[in-house]
Structure formats: C-alpha cells, structure tokens
Amino acid sequence: QNMLAWLTLFLFFMIPLIAFVTWGIRRLVGARSKKHYVGITFLGLWIIGLISGISLAAMIARNFKNNTSLKEEQVMVATKDRLFVDVEGPEWKKYNHHFFGMDVDGDDFPFYDINDDSIFINTVKLSMVKSLDSSFHVYRIRSSRGSAPSRAEKSAQNIDFNIQQRDSVIVLPRGFNISRGDKFRNQRVWIVIEVPVGKKIAFSEKIRNYNWFSVKSRSNGFEVTGDEFDDRENLYRAIPGNEYVMRPEGRPEKIND
C-alpha cells in the first residue's frame, strides 16, 4: 500500500505539474519538435499513476469491507440510587491537539498521537435503556472493520477500553490506542447503560469530546458518516451535561435545566 500511495502521489498528481512546467519552458525558449515522445512518456507515467490510485482505493476499500461487533460484555453492576458518568483526566482535548506532529485544533478531530507507533482514537458513544431490575448495568460493545470477518473480530478484540467505578461514579477512558500492527479499521466502542426505574443518571460535559463515526466501503468508493445513532426502540442517546430519571415506560426524563 505504501508503494502504491507514493506512485499515486508522484505519477498521478506530480507528473501533470512537471509536464506543464516542461511545456512552459519549451514555449519560452522556442523549442519545437515534431516528435511527441516527451508527451507520450508523461501520458504513460500519468496512466500508471491512475492505475496505482485505483488499485490503492480498491485495496483500502477491501480493508473496510466487513464489520464485526463483539458480543456485548457486562463490565459493571451498580446498586446506587444515582450514577454519574465521567471521563478520566482533565479537559484532555485542550492539551494534545496533535496528530503525528500536525496541529489539529478543533473539537471534531478524532485522532491524537501517542508516539510514532500508535494513535489515540475516541470513537465512542453512550446510550441509555431501561433496566429490568433495580441495578445499573453497564455494557461494552467493541466493533471494527476488516478485509474479512475474522480480521475485523481480531481488531475489535484488541481494543482496550476499561471502565472504572468509584463509589457512585463510573469513569470512562478518554479513548483507546491503535498500534501500527493493528492499523486503523474504524474501531469503535459503544457503551450501553441500563438504568433502573426511578433512579437517576447524570453525564459529564466531557463525554462531548467523543467522536462517533463510521467508514463504510461502497462499490463506488467510501462513505463516512459522522455522529450516527442507532435509534432502536427504548434506546436513548446520552447528552453531555444532562441528568435523567428513568420512567416506568422506559423513557429517561431530563430533570436538570
């Protein structure tokens, strides 16, 4: 893929520029030739670049062809009357606006570098649903894409997103690392919290820093959708800074202004 990327960059994008500069210089010096071997050479190189670009796009699309979600994992049970959902650390996005040496100011950028061999990604979303008993239940669903279901499953299994409980507070990681070996395959984490009827749950403003998006392979290229939400029946989105109480009909009602 690296070789195809360099061929595409140089031959498809740079060759037309070089050809234009060459044509301009020849015009300035008044050079004329009935032989068109220079133009034919440039055209041939550009076609090679075009083929390389198409091959690269097809190869990348194949890497995102299959999506696999692991079975939901119950990672926590809490019997409190109120639960607060927080994100670890300070307002982390104010400090590390870098992606492999580039400044990436803005709250919507989902990648941050850790070192030369990994990236830090925050494709996480939170949902609420009515609990069937008197306890809070926290579930984690990890997913990834890959060229085959088995590869997608392996990438999902490598996601390290461990939740901590501190009394009535659950603390979520800021995101998770993707190593150079795993590579980016649209890895994501979905947290579903079952809330008992009559009990309260509040969400920190810091969950706003999560960026959920999907990369899907299409026959004509890619489709990237941002902040999509699964509107299943009785499943509700967690809004940053809001506090809710779960009603008997299974709908969380906002109780703070």
**Could you give the count of β-strands?**
19
Biggest sheet layout: 6 strands, mixed
In percent, how much strand structure appears in the residues?
Answer: 35-45%
Q: How large is the count of helical segments?
A: 3
| Portion in helices | 10-25%
Helix/strand order: HHEEEEEEEEEHEEEEEEEEEE
How much is the radius of gyration in Å?
25 Å
pLDDT < 50 runs, ≥5 residues: none
Report how far apart the termini are: 52 Å
Mean of the pLDDT scores? Answer: 81
What's the shape? elongated
Strand pairing plus helix content: what structural class? alpha+beta
How many discrete domains? Answer: 2
Structure commentary:
The protein has 257 residues and is α+β, with helices and mostly antiparallel strands. The protein has two domains: 2-63; 67-254, no CATH class. It has helices at 2-29, 37-63, 149-157, and strands at residues 66-69, 73-78, 82-87, 98-99, 102-103, 111-115, 118-121, 124-130, 136-146, 164-166, 169-172, 176-179, 188-195, 200-203, 213-218, 221-226, 236-237, 243-246, 252-254. Strands 1, 2, 8, 9, 13 and 17 form a six-stranded mixed beta sheet that branches. Strands 10-11-3-14-18-19 form a six-stranded mixed beta sheet, with no helix packed on it. The chain has a three-stranded antiparallel beta sheet with strand order 6-7-12, with no helix packed on it. β4 and β5 (102-103) form a beta hairpin. α1 packs antiparallel against α2.
